[in-house]
Write a structure and sequence with these properties.
Number of strands: 14
CATH architecture of the largest domain: 2-Layer Sandwich
Strand order of the largest sheet: 8-9-10-7-11-12-13-14
CATH topology of the largest domain: Dihydrodipicolinate Reductase, domain 2
Largest sheet: 8 strands, mixed
Number of helices: 12
Helix content: 25-40%
Structural class: alpha/beta
Shape: globular
Strand content: 25-35%
Length: 324
C-alpha cells in the first residue's frame, strides 16, 4: 500500500486533534491539502504545522478545488458539521479517496444507504471515527459476550453526562438543520453506536423522551428499547451536567461487564468476585493509526458504512418516538 496522503476537510477542534496524531507519524502519513473556508481556523491550523516544523500544505475552498489541484491524495479525513457529511463522503469516494469520517457518519438511514451505494460503486474504503468500535476494550467485550463469559446477555444500560449545553450555545451544534440533533446526536452518538455494536442485533422497538431545556435541540434524553433477539437496553444522556464521563454495563445471568462509550475502560464482576476487576487488553491506538492499519490490510474494518446505517436507523426510530 502506498503512503497515505490525506486531504483534511474541515479544520475545527476534532480535526486538529487528529492532525496532532498525523503530524507525529510523518513517515506513514502526509497532509497534502486542507479544505477550510474560515480564515481563523486556517490561521490556527497553520500554527500547528509551523510548531511541528512542517511545511504548511495548501488550503482549498472545496473538495472539488482540491481534486482539481492534483495533490496526489489517496485518502480524506472529513470533520465538517454533520449536515455536510453525506456530500463530503460521496464526493471524496468519487475522487478515488479512501474515507475516514467523523461521527456520526450521516443524518439518516437514507443518507447512509446513499454512502453505501457510492462506496460499492467506487470500491473505496469508508471508516467511521467511532473510538468505541475501534477500541481494544469494546472488541474484547464483544468476544467475551460471544464466549459466554457472563452467561446470557440480558440487558445493557448506558449513560453519558457532560457540561455540553452552555459551551455549545450559539454554535452550529445547536442548530438542528446543520447538526441533525443535540447532545444525544453529538456526544451521545458514541453511546448509541457502542451499545448497538455490543448488542450485535437489529433494534426491534424503542421508546424515547427528549427535553430541549430551552434550546433548539435535545439536551437530556432517555431511551429504552429491545433488540430483535429480546435484549433490553437503556440510554441516558445528560447534556446539562458536569465533566464528560460515561458508563456501559452489560448484564448477563452469570456476570456483569463494565466499559465506556469510548472504550475507555473494561472490567468484570461475577457472583464469586462481586467487585469489578479490570480486564487487560492490547495497547490502544488512535483513530488515525487504526485507519492506517485498516487501509494497509493489517486489520479488519470494525466501523464500516454499515455501522453508520445501523446507527442512523436507530436514531431515526428514536426521533420518531420522541416526536410522538
Amino acid at each position: 500500500m502506498s503512503a497515505t496522503k490525506v486531504i483534511i476537510v474541515g479544520t475545527g477542534g476534532i480535526a486538529k486533534f487528529h492532525l496532532g496524531k498525523i503530524l507525529e507519524i510523518p513517515r506513514s502519513s502526509q497532509v497534502v491539502g486542507l479544505v477550510e473556508i474560515n480564515e481563523a481556523s486556517r490561521a490556527s491550523t497553520r500554527d500547528l504545522f509551523i510548531a511541528a516544523g512542517r511545511e504548511v500544505p495548501p488550503f482549498f475552498n472545496s473538495i472539488k478545488e482540491a481534486v482539481g489541484a492534483k495533490t496526489g491524495a489517496n485518502s480524506v479525513l472529513i470533520a465538517t458539521p454533520h449536515k455536510f457529511h453525506v456530500e463530503n463522503i460521496c464526493e471524496s469516494l468519487r475522487a478515488g479517496w479512501d474515507v475516514l469520517v467523523e461521527k456520526p457518519m450521516v443524518l439518516s438511514a437514507a443518507e447512509a444507504r446513499r454512502v453505501i451505494r457510492t462506496r460499492d460503486k467506487t470500491g473505496k474504503l469508508v471508516v467511521i471515527g467511532f473510538p468505541g468500535s475501534l477500541s481494544a476494550q469494546i472488541k474484547k467485550a464483544k468476544q467475551m459476550i460471544a464466549k459466554g463469559t457472563i452467561g446470557r446477555l440480558t440487558s445493557i444500560s448506558a449513560y453519558v453526562h457532560q457540561d455540553w449545553k452552555r459551551p455549545q450555545t450559539g454554535t452550529w451544534r445547536q442548530v438542528p438543520e446543520i447538526s441533525g440533533g443535540g447532545f444525544l446526536f453529538d456526544t451521545g452518538s458514541h453511546m448509541i453506536n457502542t451499545v448497538v455494536d455490543l448488542l450485535g442485533d437489529d433494534v426491534a422497538s424503542v421508546n424515547a423522551q427528549f427535553d430541549n431545556c430551552g434550546t433548539p435541540v435535545e439536551i437530556t434524553s432517555s431511551v429504552i428499547g429491545r433488540s430483535k433477539g429480546g435484549i433490553q437496553f437503556s440510554l441516558c444522556a445528560g447534556g446539562d451536567s458536569i465533566l464528560c464521563q460515561s458508563g456501559v454495563f452489560l448484564l448477563g445471568d452469570k456476570g456483569v461487564i463494565e466499559t465506556g462509550i469510548w472504550g475507555e475502560k473494561l472490567a468484570i464482576k461475577t457472583a464469586k468476585n462481586p467487585e469489578f476487576t479490570p480486564i487487560p487488553v492490547p495497547k490502544s491506538y488512535s483513530v488515525w493509526e487504526q485507519f492506517l492499519k485498516i487501509r494497509n490490510g493489517k486489520m479488519e474494518n470494525p466501523c464500516p458504512a454499515e455501522i453508520g446505517l445501523r446507527f442512523a436507523h436507530l436514531m431515526d426510530l428514536i426521533r420518531k418516538s420522541a416526536e410522538r
